[in-house]
Write a structure and sequence with these properties.
Layout lengths: L1 H5 L11 H6 L20 H9 L2 H6 L1 H14 L7 E2 L6 H5 L5 E3 L3 E3 L19 H19 L5 E6 L1 H10 L7 H9 L1 H25 L3 E6 L7 H7 L1 H17 L7 E5 L3 H9 L5 E3 L6 H11 L20 E6 L8 H12 L12 E5 L9 H18 L3
Parallel strand pairs: 1-4, 4-5, 5-6, 6-7, 7-8, 8-9
Antiparallel strand pairs: 2-3
Helix pairs in contact: 5-7, 7-10, 8-9, 8-10, 9-10, 10-12, 15-16
The chain binds coproporphyrinogen I (1CP).
Protein name: HEM12-uroporphyrinogen decarboxylase
Organism: Violaceomyces palustris
Length: 394
C-alpha cells in the first residue's frame, strides 16, 4: 500500500493543481500564488502556538507543524494555491550534529559553530535522514492527510552555501566575514563541506517527496553575499548537484519527480542565465530583477527546448523554465493603494511585469516579515487573483 502511494504523481488527487501546471511552464487561467514564510510570525494564530511551545518543538511535533502549516491556508481560504511545510532550513545542520537554538527575538544561534576545518570532524560521518529528520517526513504525511488535496504541499531545504554560512557564523550575520574567510582561506575544505551538505539535502528532499511533498524549493538566501565568480564556484555547483541527484534518485526508484524551485536571492542580477540552466523547473526571483527582463532571459536560454530536460517521465520533451516572484515584501506595509499599484506593475506586461504567458507563480521577492498586517496580505492576494485573471484572459 505504502509503495503505491510513493509512486503517485504530484498532481494526483489535487483539487487545485494550478501551481504544478505553472511550474511545468504551462498556461494557467490565473497565476498561482503562495508566500515565502507564509506560516509564521505575522499571524497571531502562529504567535499563540509559539507562546506555548518552543520553536524546534513545533517543528518536531507533527500535530503542531501541520497545524501551523495549515493556518494561512485556513485564514486565506481560496486565495493561496500551496502550503509550505512548517520547519526550518537549520534542521539540516542539526541532523549533521550541530546544536542550534532559536533565541527569542534574536533568531538562530549555534553554541559551537565550525571555527576551523578540523571542526568538521565534530559532524556525523554519515547522516541517516530517516533517523535524524523522520519527524519532518511525519509532519508532511500528516499535513497531506489534513489538506486532503485542497492545495499542494511544498517541501524545502536550505542551499549548501546558505547552510554553511550559518554553520560557520554561528547564526545570522551582516558581513559573513567568518564564512567568507573559509571560502578564501580554505577553498578545498569549503568545497568538501558544501558537497557533504548537498548530499544530505538530496537525501532529505527525496525523503520529503516519498512522504508526500508535491513541489520542492531550495532556499539560497545568502547567494547575493558572494561575488559572481564566488557564486559560480561555491554556490551554483551545489545547487546543480542537488537538482540532478534528486532527479536521479527518484528516477531509479520510479518515483515521479515533483517540480523543483530554486531561490538564489541576490545572485540573479549577475547569474540569471546560469541559474535558469541549473536543472530546476522554476527560478524564484527577488525584487531586484525586472520581470520582463527575466522573461526574456528564459526565452533565450530555453531556445529550442534543449537547455533543459526534465527527468520525469511525463515531461521528457522538456519545458521552458518557469518564474516565481517577486514583489518587494515591504510593499505590504504601504497601504492598499500601493499594494494594488505594485501588483499591477509586477503582473501587467505593458508595465514591465510577468504578463499572461503562463509559466508564472506569484510570490514575494523574499519572505514576509513579522510586522505585516494579515489584512494587507488579503488585499494583496485578492489583487493578484484579479489582475492575473485579467492578463490571462480568463
Ligand atoms: O521564534 C520564531 O517563531 C522563529 C521564527 C521562524 C519561523 C516562523 C524561524 C526562525 N523560522 C521559521 C519558519 C521557516 N523558516 C519556514 C516555515 C515555512 C514557511 O512559512 O515558509 C521556512 C521555509 C524557513 C526557511 C528559512 N529559515 C530561511 C530561508 C528563507 C528566507 O527567509 O531567506 C532562512 C534563512 C532561515 C533561517 C532562520 N530561521 C529563523 C529565522 C529568524 C531565520 C533567519 C535568521 C537570519 O536573519 O539570519
Amino acid at each position: 500500500h505504502r509503495k503505491e502511494k510513493e509512486c503517485q504523481r504530484p498532481e494526483e488527487g489535487l483539487k487545485n493543481d494550478l501551481i504544478i501546471r505553472a511550474a511545468r511552464g504551462q498556461q494557467t487561467e490565473r497565476a498561482p500564488c503562495w508566500i515565502m514564510r507564509q506560516a509564521g510570525r505575522y499571524l497571531p494564530e502562529f504567535r499563540k502556538v509559539r507562546e506555548q511551545h518552543d520553536f524546534f518543538t513545533c517543528c518536531r511535533d507533527a500535530e503542531l507543524a501541520s497545524e501551523i502549516t495549515i493556518q494561512p491556508i485556513r485564514r486565506y481560504s481560496g486565495l493561496l494555491d500551496a502550503a509550505i511545510i512548517f520547519s526550518d532550513i537549520l534542521v539540516v545542520p542539526q541532523a549533521m550534529g550541530l546544536e542550534v537554538e532559536m533565541l527569542p527575538s534574536k533568531g538562530p544561534h549555534f553554541p559551537a559553530p565550525l571555527v576551523e576545518p578540523k571542526d568538521v570532524e565534530r559532524l556525523r560521518k554519515k547522516v541517516d535522514v530517516e533517523k535524524e529528520l523522520g519527524y519532518v517526513f511525519d509532519a508532511i504525511r500528516l499535513t497531506r492527510k489534513k489538506l486532503d488535496g485542497e492545495v499542494p504541499l511544498i517541501g524545502f531545504c536550505g542551499a549548501p552555501w546558505t547552510l554553511m554560512a550559518y554553520m560557520v557564523e554561528g547564526g545570522g550575520s551582516k558581513g559573513f566575514e567568518k564564512a567568507k574567510t573559509w571560502l578564501f582561506k580554505y577553498p578545498e575544505e569549503s568545497k568538501e563541506l558544501l558537497q557533504r551538505i548537498a548530499d544530505i539535502c538530496t537525501d532529505f528532499l527525496v525523503g520529503q517527496v516519498k512522504a508526500g511533498a508535491q513541489l520542492l524549493q531550495v532556499f539560497d538566501s545568502w547567494a547575493g553575499e558572494l561575488s559572481p565568480s564566488d557564486f559560480r564556484t561555491f554556490s551554483l555547483p551545489y545547487l546543480r548537484s542537488i537538482a540532478s541527484s534528486v532527479r536521479d534518485a527518484l528516477s531509479t526508484r520510479s518515483i515521479p519527480c515533483p517540480p523543483l524551485i530554486v531561490f538564489a536571492k541576490g545572485a540573479l542580477g549577475h547569474s540569471l542565465p546560469e541559474v535558469v540552466k541549473a536543472g530546476y523547473d522554476v527560478v524564484g526571483l527577488d525584487w531586484t530583477v525586472e520581470p520582463s527582463v527575466a522573461r526574456r532571459v528564459v526565452e533565450l536560454s530555453s531556445c529550442g527546448g534543449t537547455a533543459y530536460k526534465s527527468a520525469s517521465a511525463e515531461n521528457e520533451a522538456g519545458h521552458k523554465v518557469a518564474l516565481q516572484g517577486n514583489l518587494d515584501p515591504a510593499v505590504l506595509y504601504a497601504g492598499n493603494e500601493a499594494i494594488e499599484r505594485e501588483v499591477e506593475k509586477m503582473i501587467r506586461a505593458k508595465k514591465g511585469g510577468f504578463g499572461g504567458g503562463g509559466g508564472y507563480i506569484c510570490n514575494l521577492g523574499h519572505g514576509i516579515t513579522p510586522g505585516v498586517d494579515p489584512e494587507a496580505v488579503k488585499v494583496y492576494l485578492k489583487a493578484v487573483h484579479r489582475v492575473s485573471r485579467e492578463v490571462s484572459g480568463a
